Amino acid sequence: MKISDLLDIPMLASSRVTAGREGLYRSVYSVNMMDSPDIFEYLKPNELLLTTGYAIKDKPEILTQLVTRMAELGCAGLGIKTKRYLDHIPEEVKEAADRLQFPLLELSLDCALSEALHQLLARIMESRTEEMRYALESHRYFSDILLEGKSLQTILEELARLLSYPVLLVNRSLEPFATSSGFGTAYSSLLQNISNWLPSILHEARSPSIPLPPSSAVPFSYLLQYPIQTDQSQGYLLSFTNQYPVSTLSLLTLEQAANVISFDLLKRQAVKERSRRYKNDFFGDLVDGLISDKQDLIHRGRRYGLSEQRSYYCVVLKKDAPLRSRNSFSSYSPMLPNDSIGGRTASMKEDLYELVKGEAKASDFSFILFSKNDAVVMLLPVHTLEEAALDEHQLPERLLASRLQQMIHSLWSQHEVSLSVGVSNTADELSQLPRAYQEALDALQTGLHSQQQRYVQFYHVKELSDLLRMLPQEDLQEFIKETFAHLLFLEDKERGELLKTLRSFLDNHCHIADTAKQLYLHRNTVIYRLDKCEQLTGRSLRLPANSLRFRAAFLMEELLN
């Protein structure tokens, strides 16, 4: 209730607003009386204060401090009874009230403060009771719409009718989820124009009313917003208005509509999560090889678009860990979430799933998507990629790699989500999907060993270098040190010459003549250097085991560098 709504009570009939008329829109939640000098410690926001001025009759200058302090705290106003202890309200107090737009009431001599307090509180209670009744009726009205099986669109239409303003429902990314019929192109363009600053404004907004930038396209000055919450933020209910301040009943209507929409979205979310859980459980069992009955697999898979007549690529997408935590594969497990911060994990997995789903649709993929531990898994029908590749005159694998690379680039540039991708060979039968899933995981791990981020890695049979990357760096360094032994402690020039000669000797299949020819050295020089390598390392180059050991050590050194 505003101060302007309280001025017609009987006890204030002879009173007048002597200053701060511009602040009569201030809301009043409570009324208090003051006749002690320490009232400063007991002031509350939205409180109307009544006083005879007895405590400050000898120090009227305190009134200016009181008005200033009350305005700072967001109090509703100050009523002063004159002609008893204060003959008049000083001009400097009125000037302060006008400057601060703080209502200053001059109460008449016949105004009994106790009776005025009683009447004011009674009027406020009547108003609050009416607001509660209206809120309950609004909540019941919007709830009945849903109970009748009608959609959120109907709620928005009714809300727009009650408010006489267009309304829309947006998700967390401020993308329209549903709009009233009065929400036209002009409003959509306005949202696009203010999209740069609107997210931060909405997240930090303390008031439902947000001023809009001037626009000739939209004849409204303010945006009303109410957050839509379930177990997490779902978005905002928005409306346009020219009212300021906005009427309490309009805010109550908007608030109750937002509450009902939140309940409906919570119900939808529960149904969606249950369905998603069944899907994830089925595909989790499938790729883990736990479904042995072929007919059961075909029957259950058909519900999710899985066909026994098609071949599939298995694609595993996983969030990148910080590079500093990826020094060795021993510290990494695809089964452990990167972001396991209490209850936030499920929410982040859901967000990741939705982001990947949106980007996959934008990339024109035909896909089956599910979550597995902390990764998102896609099954891509091979025939759709082959058809698209034929149209674009590309190889299917190259087209797949290109689209996946575009996907992870878009996720990084637009959402700052860093993902890497592992891709399997084709699974020609549904029973081969467990093998394909493991291949995609292996491909993902291969890229991880190379200290990469945002990569697309196809599966291939592991080379020796891939196997060596699986070992901790400390073990590789220890092997190199033990293999080359004292050779590593020579001066840089001599060490380089000996290692170069030894490497060339091994590359030329231990043929001294070919080694000398490649290095432009005399045969005896090569023999001398190789003998010195044997002495320093304590290993004979004639033994096949030592030859293999030196080759492995050189390869490890390349990997470490």
TrEMBL record:
Alphabetized InterPro entries for the sequence: CdaR-like_regulators (IPR051448), CdaR_GGDEF (IPR041522), PucR_C-HTH_dom (IPR025736), PucR_C-HTH_sf (IPR042070), PucR_dom (IPR012914)
Domain of life: Bacteria
CdaR GGDEF-like domain mapped to chain residues: 292-445
Record's protein name: PucR family transcriptional regulator ligand-binding domain-containing protein
Segments forming domain PucR C-terminal helix-turn-helix: 498-555
Phylogenetic lineage: Bacteria, Bacillati, Bacillota, Bacilli, Bacillales
Domain Purine catabolism PurC-like: 5-124
Family the entry assigns: Belongs to the CdaR family.
